[in-house]
Specification:
Number of helices: 5
Shape: globular
Oligomer: single chain
Helix content: 25-40%
InterPro entries: PGBD (IPR029526)
Pfam family, one: DDE_Tnp_1_7
Number of strands: 7
Protein name: PiggyBac transposable element-derived protein domain-containing protein
Strand content: 25-35%
Distance between the termini: 24 Å
Strand order of the largest sheet: 1-2-5-4-3
Radius of gyration: 17 Å
Length: about 150
């Protein structure tokens, strides 16, 4: 149900941004802070500012980031080779860039407050062939929980 932003909430949106304000309001109303939950969000809501805030509130977060967002280092914006993975850490945040396929024009950027700079290898059997894939664990978790 849509409610027009007024008063205090409107000034909160102006200061922090809509995505930040929506996540914070939902977490407060559902009384989910300080319980160790891990939330997964898309690039509309994700920001380093929100991730640090949630971490201070006892909540972990993993989310995709837009390439043009403030604070993204240049080495994460340049085009990656197929299969290339880069990690950057500034506690408590870890920034991940990963390009899986040639058909991807740009790498995927993810931000997490609980991930590790590690890859996971999985194998699937298709008929007589075994297909082995290696992906960063942060991406596997994000894909698993975001659907």
């Amino acid at each position: 149900v849509y409610q027009r932003a007024e008063g205090e909430y409107k000034s909160l949106i102006t200061r922090r941004g809509l995505g930040f304000s929506v996540v914070d309001t939902l977490m407060k109303k559902a009384n989910l802070y300080e319980k160790g939950y891990h939330i997964y969000i898309d690039n509309f809501f994700s920001s380093t500012k929100l991730a640090k805030y949630l971490y201070k509130k006892g909540t972990y977060v993993t989310g995709t980031l837009r390439h043009n967002q403030k604070g993204i280092p240049e080495q994460m914006k340049t085009k990656f080779s197929v299969g290339e993975t880069k990690y950057m850490r500034r506690n408590p945040l870890i920034l991940l860039g990963y390009r899986e396929k040639k058909s991807q024009k740009k790498q995927v950027l993810l931000l997490s407050t609980s991930g590790k700079a590690e890859s996971v290898t999985k194998s699937k059997r298709r008929g007589n062939k075994v297909h082995i894939s290696t992906k960063p664990s942060i991406i596997r978790a994000y894909n698993s929980f975001m659907g």
